[in-house]
Specification:
There is one protein chain. By secondary structure, the protein is an alpha+beta fold. The protein has one domain (15-101). The chain has one helix and six strands. The protein has one helix at residues 63-80, and strands spanning 15-21, 27-34, 45-46, 52-53, 56-57, 97-101. The strands form two sheets. The chain has a four-stranded mixed sheet with strand order 3-1-2-6, with no helix packed on it. It is globular. It starts with 14 loop residues before the first strand and ends with a strand.
Length: 102
């Protein structure tokens, strides 16, 4: 099914997402690599996680362990986002997204 959102175009191909962080650990950019993994400069964070392998759910993604993992990930994610994400009115994206094609 194709996206039908206004002003949004679908880009075909396998995608890999990376959040670029500055030296203070604050997000400055999200990079979507199309057909390749974006380069990590050492403190960046891959946004895609594997939780199913060969049709099987990997350990740590359900139950109490999964809830704790989600809470920790949420807290870490909120800490790395710039303060502008907490405003209530609409505006520009808090961090830009860049698409890198092969």
């Amino acid at each position: 099914m194709a996206k039908v959102a206004k002003n949004k175009a679908s880009v075909g191909g396998r995608k890999y997402a990376l959040r670029k962080l500055n030296e203070l650990g604050i997000a400055t950019q999200e990079i979507v690599g199309i057909g390749h993994r974006p380069e990590d400069d050492g403190n960046d964070r891959q946004l895609l996680q594997q939780f199913i392998k060969n049709g099987e759910l990997l350990p740590g993604w359900t139950g109490h362990e999964g809830v704790v993992r989600a809470q920790e990930r949420h807290a870490a994610t909120m800490a790395e986002l710039p303060p502008v994400v907490r405003r209530l009115q609409r505006g520009e994206p808090a961090i830009p997204t860049v698409y890198e094609e092969d």
